[in-house]
Specification:
The structure holds two protein chains of two kinds. Chain A is mainly alpha-helical. Chain A is 82% helix and 0% strand. Chain A has one domain: ABC transporter involved in vitamin B12 uptake, BtuC, CATH 1.10.3470.10. Chain A has helices at residues 2-9, 11-36, 42-49, 51-61, 66-90, 95-120, 130-133, 141-160, 162-170, 172-177, 182-221, 227-251, 257-275, 281-301. In chain A, α3 crosses α11, α5 (66-90) packs across α11 and α12 crosses α13 (257-275). Chain B is mainly α. Chain B folds into two domains: 3-116 and 134-277, Orthogonal Bundle (ABC transporter involved in vitamin B12 uptake, BtuC); 281-366, Winged helix-like DNA-binding domain superfamily/Winged helix DNA-binding domain (Arc Repressor Mutant, subunit A), CATH 1.10.10. In chain B, the strands form two sheets. In chain B, strands 1-2 form a two-stranded antiparallel sheet. In chain B, α1 crosses α10. The model of chain B has no long low-confidence stretch (mean pLDDT 84). Classes of the chains: A mainly alpha, B mainly alpha.
């Protein structure tokens, strides 16, 4: 009990846990749309694409303030998303290739800039590479406040456009026939996902951010067929994994927060896939066995 | 050979080795598998390291390659439960394996030189320092490894060319003819995995993706023939790699990053300028189509009213805008083009179809 109180009384840990929980809620809810629209890898592509934005923002302003870097990341991630849309719309190249191409080329440009920066000997760039794997341990109150504020704005917009996003996700053709500006909504939703990613970069880094979008949504999907419930559950799963990850990495020695959060959320996914009441594999197996028994006895009764 | 020449040779070998299996990834719409494999390799390397306890052991490469195949299998396993789509399955599997690898490194191998950053980046510039003598010839180890992988890729694609072609473009027919799609698929994935593992030493995990997908995607916009696409992919990849090497020397920066950046530049050029499938060609085709449709509509309109009492009213240039709901400028331009094409003649304010225009209008209406 004392250990538990120590853990939660710890100021640094409280910041990290709060930040991770905020990230979990935001990315969980937005991830639902990404997963339902089969754009699960959008997060992966855009989080890698954000890297050159982070480095350029630092090169141009010389500042490492979270808000400056976040703006750079958002701009680059957004450009990456637009590049994917343009490639898919204007050529016969399919989404998977467009994702892979944008992801790797943007990331490469980021590495190119970072390496130039490091070799030119400009001071103060140390720590930019923490964006690769996240720097949860270095989170301070200002960072957490930025995360929470950005997350709140993002979620507010999701709530405002809830109905439109729902139709867009399940039946874009119907959305168009209702007179919704489908392309504008598409861009807005993509921009919100970019915001979620930007929030996550500081915590889990570009490599693991895709899991934060995909995993909570997949776990939540197994428990319900309703979008509203799925979004709430995904937000809850995301927050839970965030807090668990923060606590474990604080108590364990030398464990990075990002990977631990990802392992926690993966365990939640596995449990949901197995034990969810209707869609779960255990339920499916039991149902199948029940059917087989019933057929067997039916056959016996009426040869 | 000077180190500079060796680095450029290695760069070309990497690009060529990656473009070969990459062509099939792009065509089979499984490009993101390369993303997943390039991340999960780390897991295989860590596990193999714990077994053999030697960072230079070739078993690390075997372990990493097997992990790539394991990744593909896990993604398929998840997809087959029909509870997760393939893209989401990829997004679940690779972060998990990557995270486990990072945790194991930081927990149990803190004092070993197994660096996350090195895995993601790689530095081809160091390749000439690590040398290996085989058959009495001393070359950089990377050259031997990548040369071997390139040969394996060429061999596999050469031997199974017809089967790969068939199963890529018509998987159902391939299965019906008795080729095992699963066997070919896993053969190809083993190759992708092996190539990624061999290449990541030189260019790092993320940049392998650029070299595997970028050049074949660009080639896909230039040709419809599989054999040409493979050749063009290798050529575009090699040229980008060389251009990247010189860009890196110019800017004093990472060679691998510059190579992948040049892949992006090559793709962008092809994307915009490709003769038939480029953006410029596409926009021009769309504009031309718009004029053709407008001319057909005009001709059809005139033909419809030819010989009817309303004909005089309907074929006057000054009133056409109202009937067809076109702006005066647009009408002027359409009439001008139709006149030049010999579809109609202007007599003062009245438009008359020529024989040719009548035939075209009739054809457009019956189609």
């Amino acid at each position: 009990m004392d250990a538990l109180r120590d853990v939660f009384g710890d100021y640094t840990l409280r910041s990290i846990a709060l930040g991770a929980a905020a990230l979990g809620v935001v990315s969980g809810i937005l991830g639902c749309f990404a997963v339902l629209r089969r754009q699960a890898l959008l997060g992966d592509a855009m989080s890698h694409a954000a890297l050159p934005g982070v480095v350029l923002a630092f090169m141009l302003t010389g500042s490492r303030a979270p808000l400056v870097l976040v703006c750079g990341a958002a701009l680059a991630g957004w450009l990456g998303a637009l590049a994917v849309l343009a490639i898919v719309r204007l050529s016969r190249i399919k989404e998977d290739s467009a994702f892979g191409l944008v992801l790797s080329v943007f990331f490469a440009i980021g590495m190119l800039l970072l390496s130039m920066l490091q070799r030119s000997g400009v001071g103060g760039q140390a720590g930019l590479d923490k964006y690769l794997f996240g720097q949860a341990a270095a989170l301070v109150t200002a960072d957490v406040l930025t995360i929470v504020a950005l997350g709140a704005v993002t979620l507010l917009l999701v709530a405002l456009f809830w109905k439109e996003f729902r139709v867009l996700s399940f039946d874009p053709a119907y959305a168009a026939s209702l007179g919704y500006p489908v392309r504008a909504l598409d861009i807005l939703l993509t921009s919100l996902i970019v915001m979620a990613i930007v929030i996550g970069l500081q915590l889990v880094g570009v490599v693991l951010m895709s899991a934060m979008l995909v995993a909570p949504a997949v776990a939540a999907r197994q428990w319900t067929n309703r979008l509203g419930a799925m979004a709430l559950l995904a937000g809850g799963f995301g927050a839970l994994a965030g807090v668990i990850g923060a606590v474990i990495s604080a108590t364990g020695r030398g464990l990075a927060t990002g990977p631990v959060i990802v392992v926690s959320i993966s365990v939640l996914v596995l449990a949901s896939l197995t034990f969810a009441p209707e869609r779960g594999m255990l339920a499916g197996w039991l149902r199948q066995r029940g059917n087989r028994r019933r057929h067997a006895t039916d056959d016996g009764a009426h040869p | 050979m000077s180190p500079h020449v060796e680095i450029q040779l290695i760069a070309v070998l990497v690009a060529a080795a990656c473009a070969l299996p990459g062509t099939f990834l792009v065509l089979r719409r499984t490009a993101m598998v390369s993303d997943a494999i390039s991340h999960t390799m780390l897991f295989g390397i860590v596990i193999s390291y714990f077994v053999v306890r030697d960072l230079a052991s070739p078993w690390l490469m075997v372990g990493a390659t097997l992990t790539g195949v394991l990744t593909v299998w896990l993604v398929e396993l998840l997809t087959r439960t029909r509870r997760v789509h393939e893209d989401a399955a990829i997004g679940l599997v690779f972060p998990l394996l990557f995270s486990l690898a990072v945790i194991m490194i930081s927990r149990f191998a803190g004092n070993v030189h197994l660096d996350n950053d090195a895995v993601l980046l790689g530095e081809i510039g160091f390749a000439p320092f690590d040398r290996l003598t085989l058959l009495g010839i001393e070359l950089p180890r990377a050259m031997w490894v990548l040369g071997g992988i390139l040969s394996a890729n060429l061999l596999f694609i050469g031997v199974c060319y017809k089967e790969l072609q068939l199963s890529t473009f018509d998987a159902g027919l391939a299965a019906a003819l008795g080729f095992s799609p699963a066997l070919l698929h896993y053969g190809l994935m083993t190759l992708v995995s092996l190539t990624a593992v061999g290449a990541f030493d030189a260019v790092g995990a993320i940049l392998v993706i650029a070299l595997m997908i970028g050049p074949p995607a660009a080639a896909y916009l230039l040709t419809d023939r599989l054999s040409h696409m493979i050749g063009l992919g290798v050529a575009i990849g090699s040229l980008s790699a060389l251009a990247g090497y010189w860009l890196a020397r110019l800017l004093d920066t990472t060679i691998a990053g510059a190579m992948a950046t040049m892949v992006g530049v090559s793709f962008a050029l092809v994307f915009v300028l490709a003769p038939q499938r480029g953006v410029i060609a596409l926009l021009r085709r769309r504009a031309r189509q718009r004029w053709i449709v407008a001319q057909q509509m005009l001709a059809a309109h005139l033909l419809q009213h030819e010989g009817t009492p309303a004909a005089a009213d309907e074929s006057r240039l000054s009133t056409l805008g109202e009937h067809l709901r076109w702006s005066p400028e647009f009408i002027g331009a359409v009439v001008h083009r139709a006149e030049e094409a010999g579809m109609l003649q202007r007599e003062g304010d009245t438009l008359r179809l020529t024989e040719r225009g009548r035939a075209l209008a009739a054809a457009a209406m019956t189609r």
